[in-house]
Q: What sequence folds into this?
């Protein structure tokens, strides 16, 4: 998958794309032997990130990309021209059609089903706004999917773009070492929309606290049943909204 990110602050992304799973996903050295089984980018890894500074596309000789809102009010609004021209130029860099996404608190709330849908796309184009957001005409012309990462307001779409990127990239085949680990966790289809069960590792006793006996039993059927029960119990206690509605009597 190719991920284009358009932003006024490309430098915000280097620490996040350059560490841990997101870094590994774009590292061709790790995937040499996997070619043929996985869909790889031209450079030989499952994912390629391309950052674009929207300011590089402004036609304003002072580098301006925003202006005061018509009708008055606080803050500045990002102008149509730089973002439109940036999108047109970046989309030409690869023949694959990009799914355009604008990060915005007005968008559709990001959840695991949407993440799974986006993980199946060949190319995402994420547009992060700052200030009071974009001139509405740019949104109307680009017809993007608008996505929010939650009901709170960030100072820009960059952190939201990073959250979306992280959630999507870890689902791309080849990115996580153990293919099962993404499948069973909270909110994924494999966990039937329940919260995750609790996990334990060595030592078996820590500060006098023990591990549930069933996990040491080696009885895989009992372990599976216990984990299912724990997942259901936790979901009932913490997130009853995730459970299917009870059957009418
Ligand atoms: N930009 C500012 N706040 C945001 C949010 N909650 N989600 C996505 N983009 C944003």
A:
């Amino acid at each position: 998958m190719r991920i284009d990110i358009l932003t006024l602050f490309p430098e915000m992304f280097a620490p996040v794309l350059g560490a841990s799973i997101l870094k590994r996903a774009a590292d061709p050295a790790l995937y040499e032997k996997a070619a043929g089984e996985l869909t790889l980018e031209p450079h030989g890894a499952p994912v390629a990130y391309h950052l674009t500074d929207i300011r590089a596309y402004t036609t304003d000789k002072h580098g301006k990309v925003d202006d005061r809102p018509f009708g008055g009010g606080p803050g500045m609004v990002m102008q149509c021209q730089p973002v439109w021209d940036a999108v047109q130029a970046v989309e030409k860099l690869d023949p694959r059609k990009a799914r355009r996404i604008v990060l915005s608190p007005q968008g559709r709330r990001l959840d695991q089903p949407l993440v799974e849908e986006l993980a199946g796309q060949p190319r995402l184009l994420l547009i992060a706004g700052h200030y009071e957001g974009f001139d509405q005409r740019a949104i109307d012309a680009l017809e993007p999917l608008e996505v929010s990462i939650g009901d709170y307001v960030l100072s820009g779409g960059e952190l939201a773009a990073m959250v979306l990127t992280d959630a999507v990239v870890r689902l791309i085949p080849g990115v996580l070492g153990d293919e099962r680990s993404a499948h069973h966790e909270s909110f994924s289809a494999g966990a039937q929309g329940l919260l995750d069960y609790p996990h334990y590792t060595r030592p078996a006793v820590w500060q006098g606290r023990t591990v549930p006996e069933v996990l040491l039993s080696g009885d895989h059927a009992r372990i599976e049943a216990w984990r299912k029960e724990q997942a259901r119990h936790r979901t009932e206690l913490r997130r009853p909204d995730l459970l299917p509605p009870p059957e009418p009597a």
Remarks:
- The first helix runs from residue 14 to 17.
